[in-house]
Amino acid sequence: xxxxxxxxxxxxxxxxxxxxxxxxxxxxxxxxxxxxxxxxxxxxxxxxxxxxxxxxxxxxxxxxxxxxxxxxxxxxxxxxxxxxxxxxxxxxxxxxxxxxxxxxxxxxxxxxxxxxxxxxxxxxxxxxxxxxxxxxxxxxxxxxxxxxxxxxxxxxxxxxxxxxxxxxxxxxxxxxxxxxxxxxxxxxxxxxxxxxxxxxxxxxxxxxxxxxxxxxxxxxxxxxxxxxxxxxxxxxxxxxxxxxxxxxxxxxxxxxxxxxxxxxxxxxxxxxxxxxxxxxxxxxxxxxxxxxxxxxxxxxxxxxxxxxxxxxxxxxxxxxxxxxxxxxxxxxxxxxxxxxxxxxxxxxxxxxxxxxxxxxxxxxxxxxxxxxxxxxxxxxxxxxxxxxxxxxxxxxxxxxxxxxxxxxxxxxxxxxxxxxxxxxxxxxxxxxxxxxxxxxxxxxxxxxxxxxxxxxxxxxxxxxxxxxxxxxxxxxxxxxxxxxxxxxxxxxxxxxxxxxxxxxxxxxxxxxxxxxxx
Amino acid sequence: xxxxxxxxxxxxxxxxxxxxxxxxxxxxxxxxxxxxxxxxxxxxxxxxxxxxxxxxxxxxxxxxxxxxxxxxxxxxxxxxxxxxxxxxxxxxxxxxxxxxxxxxxxxxxxxxxxxxxxxxxxxxxxxxxxxxxxxxxxxxxxxxxxxxxxxxxxxxxxxxxxxxxxxxxxxxxxxxxxxxxxxxxxxxxxxxxxxxxxxxxxxxxxxxxxxxxxxxxxxxxxxxxxxxxxxxxxxxxxxxxxxxxxxxxxxxxxxxxxxxxxxxxxxxxxxxxxxxxxxxxxxxxxxxxxxxxxxxxxxxxxxxxxxxxxxxxxxxxxxxxxxxxxxxxxxxxxxxxxxxxxxxxxxxxxxxxxxxxxxx
Lengths: 518, 360
Prior knowledge:
The complex is a heterodimer of chains A (518) and B (360). Chain A has 518 residues and is an alpha/beta fold. The radius of gyration of chain A is 25 Å and the shape is globular. Chain B has one domain: ABC transporter involved in vitamin B12 uptake, BtuC (Orthogonal Bundle), CATH 1.10.3470. Residues 1-8 of chain B have low confidence and may be disordered.
């Protein structure tokens, strides 16, 4: 560990119009270590890694590999120097097999492409690094966690000795995350160097040897993992003290507000994606729906909020039957909706902050003058929400496109929460949102809960569901397969249910519970 | 407060904000595309042995040479304002209206027919009535496409193109048979004096039609800037999913925008009849509706800017005719430029879309 660093970067600087993404960043990475690059969204992590991988050219600074200065102009240069990267979004060809994907672009040939050789090579690599991948499986048939290992194999096949993993856990289930930890341990044991980009404190503590913290484009400090703690990391990352644990008062459960009875919904392909979900959320309660994405969450959310027709079942809001009601009726009935994808459903990116803050509520008397927009009414209201929700923007007439992810999300949350709703459907409220804004949004949710709002939280972030919810239901293949008070679930148990270990439940008792309608 | 406003940092800040709010990219792309089209058009001319400088001089003279040239240019500009606005209105709600031509034709015939009867009405009333009929018929024509899209999900581009053929054949039938005036030419009876638009310059065809066009532009611009309906149309136009989440019906807004687009194009047809031709003559439109697409595309479908691009195309139209009469350079040159404008406006978007997909 005390020899020359395998990768050393000095004074790397990169400016984009209006932002200094990397500001004289320097640090060194030792051979065989797992080095976490920790920072919030927008801290400059991805820019830095793209520079190391040759996708961007730095304006200033130097990169040394094992003490020798190098110039990396393209990813091909990086690969030649032994640097491999696993992107957040996989770059795999779905209909091809694992082996074909691994060798793609650098095929072992003897005049013609030999799948057998590709399979052998993949098998060998897979065994050597303990990756456990079937070379003949098609990408489209294997789970996300395995796809990620294929990406790692691709890099290993190209003889990468330094592996950059960009937010590798973002797409994984809790079980898959554990498998990734094993994979990383194996790679480390085989002498590989791993750079692990993340904004999650727990995994940083769990997997890394050393941590470099980026904030506002600067490298603040490199710490030994063993000598630090999550609290310190959070403080360094955000620049102030952060409350990591959500402080919850006991739940004061009121009357039943959201009631779903045997709700069935089809997905876009006409397949039944929600297969009879029954659940009730009371005033003053947060009901968390845990589950791996793609188990019917989207369809369930859309059915409740009127964006998708149900094929069966019943939805009641505050005692009123609103099955298959139009979105406008549901908004009027006091059901607020924080959509799971901010960019597709949450905001109109061409609109200003103010225009976005009234979207869905724009027909209220205070925002209109007969058929005309009451600009002063909207402006006064918007300024209030911007202040109340601490939205950082240059003004209410600024295009929302210029806001950071966290602040854009605060616009969506602020819009809905400021309308004194009776019930809320809150989906992925903190996806792509930095630690500071996450903390804030969580506090606001609890505030709404304490004010007597019934909140249905749908999130793939298990930590989030566990820390906020009073009750948790696990959604698996379109059904709630387990439901308990939040504190009665262990993390392991939840992980098992999410992965489909329905055998662990008493099937019969469960079905009886599910038949209890509104 | 007042000292802060006068301090340099404050006005600089305001200026910065103002500059930031202008969409430079979209403005620049329009100007750039137009200049590039002129350049490439000149190249074509040179390759064919013509002097592009003479061509541009003649076009300029044809559009600005004297007050009659100027009037002629504005006459050519007027229908383009209507059709360009029609395309822009639909685009604001996220739809591509290729049907302005058909909407203009049915509007024109409705106005022509109503204006050919002596109803004994005062001039103002008869004109308004005729243009109202044009708006209603054009609106219905556009609305049919909007309805078909809403009800059956058929793409509006296909439907509006087909509606153009139907409009052309329907109006041709009507002026050839039931509504044909006596004589050889397939046309309606002439518009009565009370329904003709007042002339602005004796010896030219310029009428108050140009003011009607500007008035409609103002109405549409205000609609999108200051009304709830305009806000809802823009919301679903920019991001249908977010609009729907906000309780706005994508289908209703789409259909409404097509009615509005059709009405605007229809009035354009009516103004052309009452102002220029004095009756509906088969084939009177040289493709105003299709030119409207270029007009709208050049200003990124911003209704308030439609008159500017209309004038640019009006110059090309009027200048092209002059060019043809006075030189050997074919007037089609201006059509080439029009095509190039669309090409250069569309090309960057195609490029962007490809890049976006790749970066995913």
